[in-house]
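Reader question, answered in our methods column.
A reader sent in the components of a multi-part assembly and asked whether the whole thing could be modeled at once rather than chain by chain. We filled in our standard form and ran it. Here is what they sent:
COMPLEX SIZE: two components
ENTRIES:
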Amino acid sequence: MTHKTDDWGLLLTAALEGDSRAYAHFLRAVTPVLRGVVRARGAALGEAGCEDVLQEVLLALHLKRHTWQVGTPVRPWLYAITRYKVVDAFRARGRRIDLPIEDFADVLPAETGVDPTQGADIDKMIGMLDPRAARLVRQVGVEGDTMAEAGAKLDMSEGAVRVALHRAFKQLAVLRKRHVE
Amino acid sequence: MKTDDLIRAMAGDTVVGPAPQGRLIWLLPALALGFVALWSRLGLRADLGVALQDPVSAMRIVLSLGLGAGALWAVVRLAHPGAVVRLWPLAAVALGAVGLWLWAFVAMPAEGRQMAIVGKTMVGCLTTIPLLAVLPTAAVLATLRQGAPVRPVLAGAVAGLAGGGLAAAVYALHCTEDSPLFYVTWYGTAILGVSAVSALIAHRALRW
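And here is the structure of the entire assembly that came back:
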């Protein structure tokens, strides 16, 4: 797992410098590991519930990625955030769980089954964004639009799209707090 | 939305927030404002230059600044998930303060101790230090908010130690109580009070 962590560090470094592809690659690399952690802890929530929690963890990672210090190991940072958000998510759902940090290293990445990767909560929250922001998030996420393409469809400049997308994610975190608590 | 779609959307967002410790810059105006307020309302002590040369009196400032610096160092780490947080510098300052207090207690004749502890300006000290601590502590809490503290209550308490310690160092420029029996007791009480309130605020304000 050590070599993998080094890769994560390189990818995340590039991501913080604005490399979208490296960032997507990083997120896809860590997602199965995080999914494994969430499912190991939250079997009672079912696969769909776990996916919601996983998406909350990813959203938190996204908004707090500037707290990773380039050159430091990724794993302690990643697991600290994951533990915090998983505990938070379960508490918000009325369950208290205890996560010893050692457990994370032993968790196997979870394989995805028959599309268990659909999150429901995130759709509700996107639905609460203002319509333009909601459309933008779906345009970029589901349709895979670039900033320029999304901008053309929404009649916004590329710069405005970037700012709007960032704001949308921040707003999603705020909504999530209100919605789940 | 599928997780993979969420990832694609997130990868499109290339706006990365600034490092949390950058917000510590707000400590400078916060402390400057406190200093100006202290100077204009209460005045600096007349014999400040002489007092600073007396090691026992100067320890008020050394201990307060030491606590503030140690707490700031810990705060920066508390803002970064997974970073190792070392609280021993804080413990060392606290131990130093208690040691100094005990030394002064033993050195002082029994009949003078109570007077030395109570002093003449206890109320001023207990009100002014928390007032001076408001803005610095707010600046430190803002730093933590920009970060991702996974132990919000501890982070808030340490933020209060930072703000309280720095505020006490500013207050020491006015205060004329030179005995550790006074300043360890009441500066310490004021700083711990700030820390407790800050921890309470952090419990809600630092959730993310």
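What stands out: Chain A touches chain B through 59 residues (CB under 8 Å). The radius of gyration of chain A is 17 Å.
Send us your own complexes using the same form.
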